[in-house]
Amino acid sequence: MASAAAAPGTSSGGAGGEGGGGTKVNQELWYACAGPLVTLPPAGSLVVYFPQGHSEQVAASMRKDAGAKIPSYPNLPSKLVCILRSVTMLADPDTDEVYARMTLQPVSNVTHCDKETLLASELALKQTRPQTEFFCKTLTASDTSTHGGFSVPRRAAERIFPHLDFSMQPPAQELQARDLHDAIWTFRHIYRGQPKRHLLTTGWSLFVSGKRLLAGDSVLFIRDGRQHLLLGIRRANRQPVNLSSSVLSSDSMHIGILAAAAHAAANNSQFTVFYNPRASPSEFVIPFAKYQKAVYSNQLSLGMRFRMMFETEESATRRYMGTITGISDMDPVRWKNSQWRNIQVAWDEAAPSERRTRVSLWEVEPVIAPFFIYPSPLFTAKRPRQPGITDDDSSEMDNLFKRTMPWFGEEIGKKDLSTQNSLVPGLSLVQWMNKQQQPELLNSLAGKPV
Amino acid sequence: MASAAAAPGTSSGGAGGEGGGGTKVNQELWYACAGPLVTLPPAGSLVVYFPQGHSEQVAASMRKDAGAKIPSYPNLPSKLVCILRSVTMLADPDTDEVYARMTLQPVSNVTHCDKETLLASELALKQTRPQTEFFCKTLTASDTSTHGGFSVPRRAAERIFPHLDFSMQPPAQELQARDLHDAIWTFRHIYRGQPKRHLLTTGWSLFVSGKRLLAGDSVLFIRDGRQHLLLGIRRANRQPVNLSSSVLSSDSMHIGILAAAAHAAANNSQFTVFYNPRASPSEFVIPFAKYQKAVYSNQLSLGMRFRMMFETEESATRRYMGTITGISDMDPVRWKNSQWRNIQVAWDEAAPSERRTRVSLWEVEPVIAPFFIYPSPLFTAKRPRQPGITDDDSSEMDNLFKRTMPWFGEEIGKKDLSTQNSLVPGLSLVQWMNKQQQPELLNSLAGKPV
DNA sequence: ATGTTGGCTAGAAGCCGACAA
DNA sequence: TTGTCGGCTTCTAGCCAACAT
C-alpha cells in the first residue's frame, strides 16, 4: 500500500559518509526508542521545514537559549516547503541516542512538483508506524546494582520472550538480543524465586556497564517477527550533550543552520538536518499534507477547547485537554508570522512533568462543538494501559478529521488514496495541484495568520 | 614583564556560559596537555584569524574533508586581523580533551588600534609558556591491565614525585594529584620489586577506568611549584569525535564558521571560535606580530632550505629540515591569495608519523645562506632528549631572526620592548603604527603574494 | 631499566530465596 | 506482582616477586 513512498530507514542516500559515526539502524527498534509519537515522513514526499524549530532543537541539545545575538536572515522565510530527498535512521555509537538525518531540497513552487512527489505526500498522512510487540521498563536500583540481575515484568516476559520449558527445574533459557548497532547481547533468562518471577541474570551486568545504564534509564525489548529479540535503551537524564561545544560556538551553530537553509533556499539545492526526537519536543520537519490539513481544518480561536497527545511514562500515549489562551508569534522580530508554536495554551491537569505552554497548529485536535467533545478521561480510564500498547491507532488524523468535521462523511480515509482521499474536502492534493487555483494555501505558507 | 598583556586562562570573559560543559582549567596543565608547540596569544593583543584553517580544524575534528559544497563567502577575506578579546583554557569534562575558547573582534583598520593593544601585540612575540617540570609516559598494556599498577620511569619519579623515605621497608607514600577538572586522584607510590622500581598501585586502576584509558594513551604528571602534583592525559587514538554529528551537519558547521566570521567582520562585532590544539595541526589564530615578522623576514623562494619544529613522542620538540618545492594557494577558488599553507615542501627525512607537505609562512625557519645552515642533526644528537624538556627556549623567534638576518645585530630582543625592540628593523610596531606609512603590510594582509 | 607473567589473596560480583510492599 | 536484602559462592581485581628483554 505504501509502496509508492520509500520507507524511512531504507531510503536513498544511505551512504555512511555524512552523519558522523552514527550507524544506520533497524527501523522498528529506532521507532521504539524514539517514542510512540514520532513518525518520520517518507523520502520523496513534501514536507514543511521550520528553521525556528530547528534552532530550538539545537539550543535544547546544548542547554542554551536560541540567543538574541543570532543575526536574522531576511532571505530565509519562517518555513520552507521541501522535498524530503532522503531520511536515514541513525544512532549514536556512544550513547545509543537515536536520531535521523534528513536531506531536504526547497521547492520554490509547490505546483511544479511531479506527480510522484504529490502521491508520496498524500501517502505520508496515512503512513503507519510499524506495529511491534515490545515492552519498556524503567530500571530500578536493584536492576542496575552489581548485586543482582534484572527483574522482568511478568506480563512482558510472557508476551515478548520465547516461552520457557516449564518441565525444567528451574525453567531457564539463553536469550540473544540485538542492539541498535547490531551488537548481540546474551542473557540467561530464568524463572525462579519464591514467589516465582522472571529474571535476567548472567550477562545482564555486562549490558548495564557496557551501556552505562543508571537507575531511571529505560530498556526496551522488542520481539521482531517471531524470532529475534531487539534491545534498545532510553536514558532518563537528558545530559546537556556538551559535545561539539569544543568544536563550534553555539552562535556559529545557529548561524550555520540558518545560513545552510538560506543558501539551499536561494539555490534550490539540498541541505542536511539532524532530527533528534528525544532531545526536545521539536518536530521541525512535518509532512506537507499534515500542515495543509491543519491549516484548513483547524479554525482556531481564543478560548477554544482542544486535546493533544503526550507520551506516558510507559511509552504509551495519552491525551490531555486544554484551552487556547492566545495566538501570537513566539518571536515577532526574527520569525514574524511563523506558525511555529504560535498557539498559547492552558492545560486542564497539572503537568506530570513538563507541559508546553506554546504549541503548533498541527499538534492540537480542536473540539469545536460541545457535543463533539470526546469523553477522554472516561474512555481512557476504561482501557488498561499496557506498556508498549498505544491508544493511537495511527488513523488518528482521520478520526480527528471526522470528529471535527463529521459532515464530510465516512468516505474519507476509506477509498483509494491516490485518486479520491482528500486533504481538502472533495479534492485530492494531486487534483488540487493540477488545478493550481488555490492561492490561499500559498498565502498561508508565506506567513499569513491562520 | 609581561604584565601588560593578560595571560591566557586568566583573561576577561571567563564566564562559564559559552563553551558548553568545558571547565576552566589550570594553565600549566593545559599547556602540558596541549603539547610543547602550542602557545596561546594573550588577551587584548592583535591576532590574524584564518577561516580556512578554522574550517580545516572542524573538518579534522569530524574526519571529513572541508567539502567543496561549502559556498564561498565573497565578503569574507582569507584572513582577518582581530583583537583577541578573551581567551579561556578549557577541557572537555568527558574526554579531558583540552581546547581554548577565543573571542575575536575584527578590526577594520589596524592603524586605529589603541596603544595598549599594540603593546600587547608586541609582547605576544616574547611571550613564554610556563616552564613546568613534568613527565609524559605512554601507557603500556601492563599499565592499563587490571592485573597490576603503573610502572613509573625511574628518572621521572625522582624528578617529579616527592622523595621517598628510604628508611621505610619498602619505601612508600601516598600521592595526590589534581586533574584538569580539579578532581583529586590518590595513588599509593611504592618502591619495590627485584630489581627495585617505582610503582603506582592502589588507586591507579580507578584512574584508568575512570578516564577510560587504553594502552597507547599517555599520562602527564606535573610538579606545580613545589607542592602539588597535576595530572593530565593525552589520548592516542584520535577518535573522529562523532559528537555533534547528531546535532549539526558538517555542511552547516562549515557554513556556520564562515557566516559567523563574515557577520562579525561586516559589523566589527565579536565572534567566538574554539581552538583544539591536538585535533589537528591547525593554528588558525596567530599573533599579528608573528605574522608580520614572518612576512617581512622570510623572503622565501623555490628550492630554499628551511627547518621546522615538530613534537616528539615524548612531548619534547625536534627540528626537521626540508626544501621549499612550491608556493601556491591551497584552494585558488575559495581562498585566493591566502597564505594559509601556501608553501609546498619536501622533507629530508622520512616521516616518523605524518609530515605535512604544505605549511604556512610563519611555521618555517628559513636558512638563507649556506654558512648559516644550522648543524641540526649533530647538534640535536649531542643533547640527550629528556621527556618534558624542550629544546625550544621560547626566544626561538629571536634566534631565528638573528640567524637569518644576523646583520641586524644583538640589540634586537634585548632592549626595552615597548620602545625599541623591533619587528621591522629599527621601527617598533607602535612607531610603525603611529607613522602609518607602510602600505606594504596592509597590502600583504589583503592577500598579495609574498 | 622496565614490560610481562604466575602465584596468591581479599574483596567485589553475582546467584539464591526470604521477606516485604 | 516485584523491589530489596542477607547469605553464600565464585571469580576477578590487584599486590607481590620472578623473569625476560
UniProtKB/TrEMBL annotation, chains A, B:
Subunit structure: Homodimers and heterodimers.
Domain TF-B3 as annotated: residue spans: 135-237
Residue numbers of the full-length protein present here: 1 to 450 of 1088
Low complexity bias spans: 1-10
Keywords, ordered alphabetically: Auxin signaling pathway, DNA-binding, Nucleus, Transcription, Transcription regulation
The keyword Ribosomal protein belongs to this UniProt entry's keyword annotation: no
Protein's UniProt name: Auxin response factor
The family this protein is said to belong to: Belongs to the ARF family.
Entry's Gene Ontology BP terms: auxin-activated signaling pathway; regulation of DNA-templated transcription
